[in-house]
Write a structure and sequence with these properties.
about 280 residues, alpha+beta, D-amino Acid Aminotransferase, Chain A, domain 1, nine-stranded mixed beta sheet, about 30% helix, binds N-(5'-phosphopyridoxyl)-D-alanine
């Protein structure tokens, strides 16, 4: 069934939605995106996605395409028009369409597109089985804190992970894990959750932000520091977070069993805590 999608102020059937071949996201990857999950027809962590979008746009001197209130309305209208109960909304802002020159084009309006993806998120079979991860060098640029649409390194990483029968790739730089190709990375050792502190080296995950806040409220100990892939092999538990997976346990990294090879108790509890609170705050 055809979706209704949003392009520059209009809601149109997906087959009629077009963007110029001169769009700068197409030519240069000159765009910013966000993915917000939908549960029970409501948006999860929306305000935090708006804040990160604002930051990403500011970092690359790109204008807001609309007001944050209008963006919320676009998200809600897409969810409504497509009857999405569970899934996500993808949105992308680009520096618009202009003849191919590297510098920013003058007075070119930004492009805004958004679409929904309906899919089961709560009933994910991977919650029970846990996921396999493979490590790989982090070959990305130095501003990974910006949620840029230039995702070639992550596409290559995810493809490699999938070809090696894994669900996610953990990228490693100078011996330390940075993050997953599309998720934040954590290990648990002696009851403490270890995750890399925010910097230009990783994306500030919205799910990470909410989870760390909830951990503090629930007295779960956090050790925000760099960790090596060898430490991860020896961890009691490991997990990822993202808007599309929430909290997902890792049972295998590079063919080495994590813990007893089944989803661990603390990561499972963190998933429950996250979902309970995120649902309460959903808009
Ligand atoms: N990816 N790190 C990277 C590199 C990511 O691409 C993502 C999200 C995250 C987790 O961020 P959040 O919790 O805000 O989803 C961390 C999205 C889901 C994607 O590209 O589809």
């Amino acid at each position: 069934m055809s979706r209704t999608v949003y392009v520059n102020g209009e809601y149109v059937p997906e087959e009629d939605a077009t963007v110029s071949i001169f769009d700068r996201a197409f030519l240069f990857g000159d765009g910013i995106y966000e993915v917000t999950s939908v549960l029970g027809g409501k948006l999860i962590d929306f305000e935090a996605h708006v804040q990160r979008l604002d930051r990403s746009l500011g970092e690359i001197s790109m204008d807001w395409p609309c007001t944050p209130e209008e963006l919320l309305e676009v998200h809600r209208e897409l969810v409504r028009l497509n009857n999405v109960v569970e899934g996500g909304v993808y949105m992308q802002v680009t520096r618009g369409s202009a003849d191919r020159e590297f510098p920013f084009p003058a007075e070119t309006p930004t492009t805004l597109v958004a679409f929904t993806q309906a899919r089961p998120l709560l009933d994910n079979p991977r919650v029970k089985t846990g996921i396999r991860v493979v490590s790989m060098p982090d070959i990305r640029w130095q501003r990974r804190d910006i949620k840029s649409t230039a995702l070639l390194a992550q596409v290559l990483g995810k493809e490699r992970a999938v070809s090696e029968n894994a669900y996610e790739g953990w990228m490693v730089e100078d011996g330390y894990v940075t993050e997953g190709t599309s998720s934040s990375a954590y290990i648990i050792k002696d009851g403490k959750v270890v995750t890399r502190p925010l910097s230009n080296s990783i994306l500030p995950g919205v799910t990470r932000r909410t989870l760390l806040h909830l951990m503090q409220e629930c007295d779960v100990e956090l050790d925000e520091r760099l960790f090596t892939i060898e430490e991860a092999y020896a961890a009691d538990e490991a997990f990822i977070t993202s808007a599309s997976t929430f909290v997902l346990s890792i049972v295998d990294i590079d063919g080495r069993k994590i813990g007893d090879g089944t989803p661990g108790p603390l990561a499972r509890r963190l998933r429950e805590i996250y979902l309970e609170e995120a649902l309460k705050a959903a808009v």
